[in-house]
């Protein structure tokens, strides 16, 4: 196994960001701590954020926490959500290390121990059945058992947290979207056929996984190893991070455990639907709910024609 300083130097930490200025420096340092040190390259693309976030990013750049900082002007035609994949492709494209660690600022890492995880993970990426190492799924995503106890393989792969070989990233993007990328993103977006335009990167990854039977290797979460996608932002993210670092109320979110009977993703830091919301959901799914919706539609139709 390689020494950690040597491995760190081969890894680029990359993200395309929008917002979260109040927590940006703290979360960036959390990722450094999670990795075991500052990686060899840190790339942040700011995709039209507010002034406070741009200032926070510049401060991190000036203080040496960010190596490559690219900013897109707010309101630029490339900044809307449906074109976010342009920024998400550009950030890793300007990183030159052999390994890329994708992350998001609203995804919070934590580990206690597991000091050699990064060196071990880089070695795991050489396995013929492994596409990447990842996690941070907000829905159960186990495809089959992993090679060791405490691990599993997934057919999902998320930009919230993914460690991948740069060559593998390029291969997956070229296979799924090579024409679109080489056209300067002017040709039809292949992810549009399934209405997933903005998720081009993750769609390309998961298509490659399906085509080549190479999977995302995931370590099962426990109190000493968690990566939670919070989906909360700015001041709420700052408060959520503080609770997360204190390990408050994390157990029911481990491994995307179901914390409500309403199907769907759950996010640490967001309110859990209460009993009333659950009753409304189950009523809506029942035969009585279908009858009620039909009655409402008829009433609305009557008012429109009156």
Overview of the molecule:
This protein is α/β, with parallel strands linked by helices and 306 residues long. Helices cover 39% and strands 19% of the residues. The chain is built from ten helices and eleven strands. It has helices at 4-9, 24-35, 51-62, 84-93, 117-124, 166-182, 200-212, 234-245, 275-285, 287-305, and strands spanning 11-17, 41-47, 68-72, 99-103, 107-111, 130-134, 142-145, 151-154, 161-165, 215-219, 225-229. It has a nine-stranded mixed beta sheet with strand order 3-2-1-4-9-6-10-8-7, sandwiched between helices. Helix 2 (24-35) links the parallel strand 1 (11-17) and strand 2. Helix 6 (166-182) packs across helix 7 and helix 9 packs across helix 10. The protein is globular, with a radius of gyration of 21 Å. The termini are far apart. Residues 302-306 have low confidence and may be disordered.
What is the number of helical segments per DSSP (H or I, 4+ residues)? 10
Poorly predicted ranges? 302-306
Q: Strand order within the widest sheet?
A: 3-2-1-4-9-6-10-8-7
Distance between the amino and carboxyl termini: 77 Å
Quaternary: single chain
Mean pLDDT: 94
Strand share of the residues?
Answer: 15-25%
Described by strand count, sense and barrel closure, the largest sheet is: 9 strands, mixed
Structural class: alpha/beta
Give the radius of gyration. Answer: 21 Å
